[in-house]
């Protein structure tokens, strides 16, 4: 049996869970999320806990069991605490600026890059070289952060670019002069 899948998910106070057929809806103080799970699994709510069960022991059912439990646990955490990822910009003249619902990035190109912020995501710029992405859906936050990072990934010679805070980029040695 899946070690992750058999763990019950505790429901904190103020979180409402609604299970209808093959969808589960979770509503908390930060927002509302829905997820359609496989009909091969059974989800029950008992005593302020969510339990994910499976009928068979096939490889597909075992993999869906742990995945579904993790996704539901992430939804519960998202509507209660939310998710946050931080990016750091390194490079001379590289900076970020927030203008309404757009993030303007100067990344050494001949033009500034305007990144439109999707629904459900909030972006803060505490300093011109830091970006904070917040949201209730873990997948959406990670996807937006990856899109911003891919605009100018860190290069390995001078270390310029956008990187996660705390990310280590191995520096290569440049050409040697004889």
In short:
It contains two helices and 13 strands. With 178 residues, it is α+β, with helices and mostly antiparallel strands. The strands form four sheets. The protein has a four-stranded antiparallel beta sheet with strand order 11-12-7-13. Strands 1-6-5 form a three-stranded antiparallel beta sheet. The chain has a three-stranded antiparallel beta sheet with strand order 2-3-4, with helices on one face.
Characterization of the model:
With 178 residues, the protein is of the alpha+beta class. It has 2 domains: 9-80, Outer Surface Protein A, domain 3 (Alpha-Beta Complex), CATH 3.90.930.12; 83-164, Ribosomal protein L6 (Outer Surface Protein A, domain 3), CATH 3.90.930. 19% of the residues lie in helices and 38% in strands. The chain has 2 helices and 13 strands, in the order ββββββαββββββαβ. It has helices at residues 59-80, 138-149; strands spanning 9-10, 16-20, 23-27, 32-36, 41-46, 49-54, 83-90, 95-99, 102-106, 113-116, 121-127, 130-135, 161-164. A 4-stranded antiparallel beta sheet has the order 11-12-7-13. The radius of gyration is 21 Å and the shape is elongated. The model has no long low-confidence stretch (mean pLDDT 92).
Strand order of the largest sheet: 11-12-7-13
Please name the fourth-level CATH homologous superfamily of the largest domain. Answer: Ribosomal protein L6
- What is the total domain count? 2
Characterize the overall form: elongated
- Estimated share of beta-strand residues: 35-45%
User: Structural class per helix/strand content?
Assistant: alpha+beta
Mean pLDDT: 92
Distance between the termini: 62 Å
Top-tier CATH class of the largest domain: Alpha Beta
| Element pattern in H and E | EEEEEEHEEEEEEHE
Percent helix, as a range, is 10-25%
SS field, number of helical segments: 2
Which ranges are low-confidence, i.e. pLDDT below 50, for 5 or more consecutive residues?
none
């Amino acid at each position: 049996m899946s070690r992750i899948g058999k763990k019950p998910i505790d429901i904190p106070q103020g979180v409402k869970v609604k299970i209808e057929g093959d969808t589960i809806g979770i509503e908390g103080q930060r927002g509302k999320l829905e997820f359609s799970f496989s009909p091969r699994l059974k989800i029950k709510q008992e005593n302020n806990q969510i339990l994910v069960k499976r009928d068979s022991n096939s490889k597909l059912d075992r993999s869906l069991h742990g995945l579904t439990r993790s996704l539901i646990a992430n939804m519960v955490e998202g509507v209660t605490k939310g998710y946050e990822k931080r990016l750091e910009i390194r490079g001379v003249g590289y900076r970020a600026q927030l203008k309404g619902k757009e993030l303007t990035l100067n990344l050494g190109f001949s033009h500034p890059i305007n990144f439109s912020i999707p629904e459900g995501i909030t972006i803060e710029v505490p300093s011109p070289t830091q970006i904070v992405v917040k949201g209730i859906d873990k997948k959406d936050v990670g996807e937006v952060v990856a899109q911003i990072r891919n605009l100018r990934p860190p290069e390995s010679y001078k270390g310029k670019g956008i990187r996660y805070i705390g990310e280590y980029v191995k520096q290569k040695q440049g050409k040697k002069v004889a």
